[in-house]
Amino acid sequence: MIDHMGFAVSDIARSRRFYEAALAPLGMGVIMVATPEQTQSGGTAIGFGKTDVGYPFFWIGDNERVGEGTHVAFPADSRAAVDAFHAAAVAAGGVDHGGPGLRPHYGPNYYAAFVLDPDGANIEAVCRGPG
């Protein structure tokens, strides 16, 4: 299962308009906008999802080259599993891209870690529970 995914776009405003229109018939819309101060790339990120899910599961973002910025997040059952993911990924040759910790700008219990895989994709493990 995948928790959420995202990729870089060349024009955030144009892409937002496109996805808002294209995803509306599927019952999806903008759930969250992350400012440049809140993102790892220093750009704007827009998260889409269904309101009944409660969090965005499809993201677009700028300030990265199209083709780069590919992002996949896997759900973790616990914060300890996030910690273990990060340690194992770095030991296997991944590059630390954000150590385990709370990211309250994504949600009150959002605990995640990020690594870049051997090709530069941003891989995340996230626990949304309180512990």
From TrEMBL:
It comes from the Bacteria. Pfam families: Glyoxalase. The keyword Membrane does not apply. The keyword tRNA-binding does not apply. Residues 1-128 form the VOC domain. Keywords: Dioxygenase, Oxidoreductase. Signal peptide: none annotated. CDD domains: VOC_like (cd07262). One of its GO terms (molecular function) is dioxygenase activity. This is Glyoxalase/bleomycin resistance/extradiol dioxygenase family protein. It comes from Sphingomonas lenta. The lineage of its organism: Bacteria, Pseudomonadati, Pseudomonadota, Alphaproteobacteria, Sphingomonadales.
